User: What shape does this take?
Amino acid sequence: MGEQFKWNPSNERVGQMLRQAVYMEDQVTLEHLVKQKADLESKDETGATPLQIAASQSRPSTISWLVSHRADIGKVDAEGFSALTWACVKGHRAAVAQLLTCRADAEAQCEANGKIPLSLCAERGHKECITELLDRRAGLEHPNRDGTLPLMCAAHHNETEVIAYLLSRNCIVNATDGEGWNALMYAVNAPVPAPSLGGEAGEKKVHLDGSVGKKHAAELLLLHKADINAQSTDGLSPLLICAGHDRPLAVRRLLENKAEVNLCSQRGQSPLLMASAHDLPNVVRALIMANAEVNHTNVKGKSSLALAEEFKYIEVADLLKKAGATAMAVTHYSANSGNGCVIGHPSTSGWHVVSMPSLLNSKAKVVRMQVDCTGPQLRWQSERCRVGSCHSWCQRPIRKMIVVTTEIVGCFPPLHSAPLDSVCCAFWELLWDWRCAREACSH
Assistant: This one.
């Protein structure tokens, strides 16, 4: 009799056969390999296990069989993706349902990007998988590792159907992440489709019962009372974020819903400054029509026109000039007391102190100083009194005063945000100490 053949493949070969059987849903081969004590956690070159392959290929019956034979449902591959993560990414509702039935964690964060299954489905538009997860009690307000929520992920990828569905499930529209961003901010920060795809007009829209026409992502959020003037921790608002993208339609939509056109960030950036710096003439035009402040400056003293001319944005510069913009960098002055003058920008909390004599470093013989304050209870000291005296104060609103001097002491632009009393004191102290005002004009 001939010698009996004994089948003894290597572990690597058994693993290959196991994964091939998963792809083919070959239950007979799977049963045979398990009898041969095949390792159900064997990985391919990408680190994927048979269970992860079954999930990515939407093989619910194979998933059930593997879990019943004690395959690890929470194991991750080289990319940090578990079986449930792969099912959500691929949009396989049947696989998601089977894994949840097998007690996969519906709120576990992906090791690779820190996102929960609901967020992974939301940013890819897998509405059916979202429905399955929510029906299995996945939390709508459960955050990702970075503090973002599923609604924010859907908004950032312009998945309007998912946004409408999440809002219909009572998702909190004004919830914020760790940096103070809400869903509306993410919506206006979404990438704009390429011009070949229609640009901003080519974005996904959805029809709502009882409304006219289809709605964009931002419109959906605004209809559900999204805070249009909310600001992040660094002062960014939806309009300010939107102004940095080629989204003139969205800018107009925000302005129509009473977005504050001159609301600035902590660094003094306004929507018009943002649009000018990114060479977006259509956005600049929309902001100018909404009465944006064309001469506003950031913390570096740069105006919109200064930025446009610096980067040679001709069309933007022309629009700003027609609106009355000037390119001069402006320094804002306020005062403390004594022999110093505080220089800085009213929108910042940090002030830099320099001595008054340092303001005299100029060859100019004549300077026009202008103070423009609109406070209703502005107190001006009498011209004949020095600062610190306790008499001759007068209560009278004064809107503007221009003084010509024979020596330059500095250029005072509008002081809208500085303390009014300190402005008045510093202004008159400067005039007195350097022999300005009427005595200078009489020479």
In short: The longest strand covers residues 367-372. The chain has a mean pLDDT of 77. Residues 333-441 form one domain.
